[in-house]
Amino acid sequence: MTSVQDNIQGKVAIVTGASSGIGESMARHLAARGAKVVLAARRTDRLDQVVAEIREAGGEAVAIATDVSQRADLEKLAAATVEAFGRIDVLVNNAGVMPLSPLEKLKVDEWDRTIDVNIKGVLYGIAAVLPRMQAQGSGHILNVASIAGIKVFTPIGTVYSATKHAVRAISEGLRVEVGNSGVRVTIVSPGAVDSELKLGSTDADAAAGLKAFYDANQIPADAVARAVVYAVEQPANVDINEVVVRPVSQDF
């Protein structure tokens, strides 16, 4: 009988936003279960450190400098992954930003950046791997949304929530479109998780309120990483469509 362990062993997995927080934890967990992991982010010094530690622990990993807001970077990431490991089995679209402020503050540049990373970055990732997965008849795309994609995070997170609602819509549409092609799609929706995401607000009032909220509620990043492992390890004919992971104390 094939064990669930074998469903991760040897798979080639790309994780974006892998230099810290949830992405880093996902990469470490997947590597520990035998996946060949490609860590993608902008901070190459951090990526190199994490890759070195994964290798020291007996895992296989490489680092690729990637800005997910640039489509060319995602295409290069996919090509480099195939060059290094021969195929792409898993993509975790994890990279994201969360600058929070009320709409009336008119932080339009931050709105643009949030859309570029959180929506376009997911779409660019899909575009880079989907043809390859369809051609090989298998693959798994996991898109990190948020509980802010289930309920609008007002009054400071309207734009962020809009991007995460979009991630859920894109994911569900993709799941239906790929049909019986062998490609699986999973939405991962974290709540308050200890990561650098909470530090992205330039609005002082929003940042202070968010810090207090996270200090009172946050759970460790590996709580989400374990959920990703659970989805990836399922047999090929099982698709975990959505996982919501939040602190017990979080009321939305």
Write a structural description:
The protein has 252 residues and is α/β, with parallel strands linked by helices. The chain has a single domain, classed as NAD(P)-binding Rossmann-like Domain (Rossmann fold, 3-Layer(aba) Sandwich). It contains 7 helices and 7 strands. It has helices at 21-32, 44-56, 71-85, 108-136, 158-178, 204-217, 222-232; strands at 12-16, 36-41, 60-65, 90-93, 139-144, 183-190, 242-245. A 7-stranded parallel sheet has the order 3-2-1-4-5-6-7, sandwiched between helices.
How would you sum up this structure in a few lines?
The protein is of the alpha/beta class and 252 residues long. The protein has helices spanning 21-32, 44-56, 71-85, 108-136, 158-178, 204-217, 222-232, and strands at 12-16, 36-41, 60-65, 90-93, 139-144, 183-190, 242-245.
Write the layout of secondary structure elements.
Elements: E1 12-16, H1 21-32, E2 36-41, H2 44-56, E3 60-65, H3 71-85, E4 90-93, H4 108-136, E5 139-144, H5 158-178, E6 183-190, H6 204-217, H7 222-232, E7 242-245
Parallel strand pairs: 1-2, 1-4, 2-3, 4-5, 5-6, 6-7
Helix pairs in contact: 1-7, 3-4, 4-5
